[in-house]
Design brief:
This protein has 263 residues and is α/β, with parallel strands linked by helices. It has 9 helices and 7 strands, in the order αβαβαβαβααβαβαβα. Strands 1, 2, 3, 4, 5, 6 and 7 form a 7-stranded parallel β-sheet that branches. Helix 8 links the parallel strand 6 and strand 7. Helix 1 runs parallel beside helix 8 and helix 3 packs parallel to helix 4. 39% of the residues are buried.
Length: 263
């Protein structure tokens, strides 16, 4: 069975439901965290219709998630955003304004104000999440060294407002679940002593009752498809991207101890 397909994704959701987890949006979790909670975060970086398909699959199961949209044509689409919000999912801003502003925080906050207002005309927004912008030398989170996002009626940003010593973080960055070696910015410290390479390893852990009680998944839906041609294209493209990011990390003097390209 191939990984990073919609079939694998549905199997993961089914295993979590069967194990009795409660699914919460990020905003709901910040306000009333459940005892055994799953946060399904989606960074809508590209192929926005893939995110719409994810939202529909969740809706069919009575599950909610959080979708972060960029201000680029590959992501921002009023019709897609409205449909996802209409299914009960949370909409958030996937900001990259420091990158847009060439590292100028004062210009970046002006762009942030403009962009979040544009998104809020389509759906309510109470949380944000940075876009990693791996090719950029600027960290989009750095704008908050100069400004406070709470002044914009934002209640949370995952990298600032989740205690990752208590919430296990899993991201499909690099088209694998242990891709921290090839992740420029989408990574946090692992305090749980767990590591998974495939979705099926995660499912086994859930089925065996060894999975943590509180987990944030970060999905990039453009990577997930049942279309064989697109699946192969994404696999090969990601292999090249991973190698490029690995070299970039080395150039920035953050050298991983090893590098294993995804199979």
């Amino acid at each position: 069975m191939r990984d990073f397909t919609l079939s694998a994704y549905q199997a993961l959701l089914d295993s979590l439901q069967e194990a009795g987890y409660q699914f919460q949006t990020f905003a709901d979790f910040l306000q009333t965290p459940a005892g055994r909670s799953i946060l399904l975060r989606h960074d809508v970086d590209d192929r926005k219709l893939h995110s719409l398909e994810f939202a529909r699959i969740q809706h069919q199961r009575g599950i909610v998630g959080t979708y972060y949209f960029r201000m680029v044509p590959e992501s921002f689409d009023e019709g897609v955003i409205r449909e996802i919000h209409g299914m009960g999912h949370e909409i958030g801003y996937h900001y990259e304004d420091m990158d847009f502003a060439g590292g100028d925080p004062h210009q970046a906050i002006k762009l942030f104000e403009k962009h979040i207002e544009k998104l809020r005309k389509v759906a309510p927004v109470s949380t944000i999440c940075m876009h990693g912008s791996p090719k950029s030398k600027y960290d989009n989170k750095d704008v908050w060294k100069h400004y406070n996002y709470r002044n914009y009626h934002i209640i949370g940003e995952p990298y600032f407002d989740i205690d990752f010593t208590k919430v296990y973080y899993l991201t499909d960055t690099g088209r694998m679940w242990d891709g921290h070696k090839v992740s420029v910015r989408d990574k946090v410290s692992n305090h749980f002593g767990l590591s998974f390479h495939t979705t099926f390893e995660i499912i086994d852990s859930i089925s065996n009752g060894k999975f943590p009680d509180k987990v944030m998944f970060n999905f990039h839906p453009q990577r997930w498809t049942d279309d064989t041609v697109l699946w192969l294209k994404e696999k090969n493209t990601q292999h090249i991207k991973n190698l490029a990011k690995y070299l970039l990390i080395r150039m920035r003097h953050t050298i991983p101890t090893d590098y294993n390209a995804p199979a």
